[in-house]
User: What shape does this take?
Amino acid sequence: MTVDAGATLELDGVNDTVGPLSGDDDDDDDDDDDDDDDDDDDDDDDDDDDDDDDDDDDDDDDDETVVEPRGQNLGVAFDEQAPIEDRIYRDPFTLRPLERFGIYLRELDIDELLATVDGRQMYDDSEAGRAASPAGYEVATNRLRRDTIEGMIDRCEQLFLSETVDPATGELRVEDQTPHLRAALEVAWDHYAGATESELTIVGFSDYLRTSADAMLANEYVQGLRQVLVELRSSGLSEREVRHCTAALLDPIAPRNIPRDDFEQLVRWSNEELRDATVRVAVEPVDTRPETPAVVNRGVLATRPHGVLAAFLGSMSWEPATIRTACGRGCLQRGSAPVVIERFQSVLGYDDNVADPAGYLQGMLDVAWINFTEATGACTTEDFMHYLRSTPSEHGAYVCIEGLRDFFVALRAAGLTCEDCTQAVLAPIAPADLGIDRLARLVEAAGASSRG
Assistant: This one.
């Protein structure tokens, strides 16, 4: 309850007036005020001491340079980066890491980037792979898979580079091991030739590497090179570029006493795969196909957008009239025919120079389907795709299906979505037991599995 001064309170019949406090209370209040003043003085002294300490800290902080992140600083950091030294110094030559594979990188120019982002055309830079000189062979950096490339480079450095101490200066020096790799393989082959009385074969040499203690080092080299090629095929390069890179990698270390094709088969395939004579037969490809207007005369594309593709497929045993009719119902995007042609050439894999590509692809898919049905007893496209993906001996058929998938993706990007075009392309290569419809579903399944 609040009582105002001067109010009258009635307590047991006695009237008391609430007035000023008594004198004793005044003294007590004065004492309290004095105590408060003393406390305030003490607090002021403490605050002064704290201020002095803060001043000392500020003086110490002034001695250190504090760099705060600002927008301008970040812009400079991105726009004016210091040059990154990514060369690996070797004696007596110097190469960038990917140049050992024959891969020369370039940045994606602004026109290519804009055309890709807004969907005006399908991005492709593999046309540079046709250049004869290494200087003209460039791959856009954004097409390669970074993790795979880094792993491939690390594995290659373990094989081709060795750190030694210079006895004169005591400095650590990196040396190229290419001559040692080639010498180890040559010695292993000579020992194999001297130890066997039967015919010298690459399969027998593979057995010798696995079982002989003297060839342990050479076997480690072969196994390491095989892993490099596996990563190379999954790096984002086209089939044509993979062949180019394989040659750039193996040619400097190919032993003089082993045929070049046999050496590549030894590195690429395991011992069990080499024994499959029906799949691994080394045949030197012969280019019996004349140069077609599809590759040379690209100026026709401006007036007859479907003529270039029709001429190209017609030159490869496909019916040109059927292709021309199918393509005529749509309109190829300007500049897309070379992309479609490149995708179709990649379907042929390692044997893109065969005289009859349609018969070649049909035979390969037919053999793969027969092997699949005999091995599993199944007949669905999903099971067949899983069989191709998980069976090393059917790698050629698997690459064919993947290439067909990329080919039809390029067709759709070029503006061709009609069913007649699909029928015209698949009819000459579809095995009789598989059929066109199931082959089309198989190609679509390959696209779905890759997207997943």
In short: The radius of gyration is 39 Å. The chain is about 55% helix and 5% strand. The chain has two domains: 88-274, 300-451.
